[in-house]
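Re: your question from the hallway

Yes, I did run it. Sequences:
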Amino acid sequence: MTGKRVVKLPAMGMTYFKRYRMEFDLRNLRSDEPMVPAEYELVAFAADQLREHAIAKYNSFRYELDADVFPCLARRDGCLKLMRDITSRHDFVPQATWLIRHLEQDPTTGSICKLPVGTIQGLSSDGWGAVQNLGVSPLHRGKGLGSILLAKAASGFASVGLEKMHLEVTTENTGAVRLYERMGFRKSRIVYKAAEVAGARS
Ligand SMILES: CC(C)(COP(=O)(O)OP(=O)(O)OC[C@H]1O[C@@H](n2cnc3c(N)ncnc32)[C@H](O)[C@@H]1OP(=O)(O)O)[C@@H](O)C(=O)NCCC(=O)NCCS
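Structure:
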């Protein structure tokens, strides 16, 4: 016996994910913004919040389809690096970047903890606002937080003079597609994103 163990890794293969590019005309933006529920706090971007955005992003995406499309979303350090990369770009739009914290009372001390549970970031390119990584962590979904983040990003883009915005969403992510359509986004075309996925047929 040599003591050597052979660990069989799942075969990697290239998968092409079908995604919609969806667009929204910011001139159609309604001025009434939805209210955040009482136990949540909506926070405008500040440079000292990168870790909080990264935590919200990781908890929102790690078990989701998009973590196959963008493997960095399944890793804490990957999410932090992504936040650093996005916010250091020349086309970063802080006005379209928002965080939601959940306010929770510690049952023993009674003190209030603030946990980051939702995030969205914005970039601008060629006159378009580009939405990056809208995510709400699983326990906090279905309460309107995703819609609020999207509405805040839209008004942030409009506040810096942009007239249209777009995003990409994996076609299988039907819940998110429905949310975007309800908000007024229209599918404009199909794009493919290649990613290495374990166990995929190459
Ligand atoms: C998509 C997402 C941001 C929606 O956040 P949310 O706070 O639940 O959004 P809202 O409460 O404003 O709207 C809920 C809508 O989202 C849909 N939705 C999508 N995924 C959902 C989920 N896992 N749980 C609850 N609602 C979900 C619901 O169907 C609902 O639409 P409906 O009212 O037509 O049924 C959230 O589900 C999420 O973070 N998903 C994983 C990450 C992701 O895929 N992000 C989008 C990348 S393009």
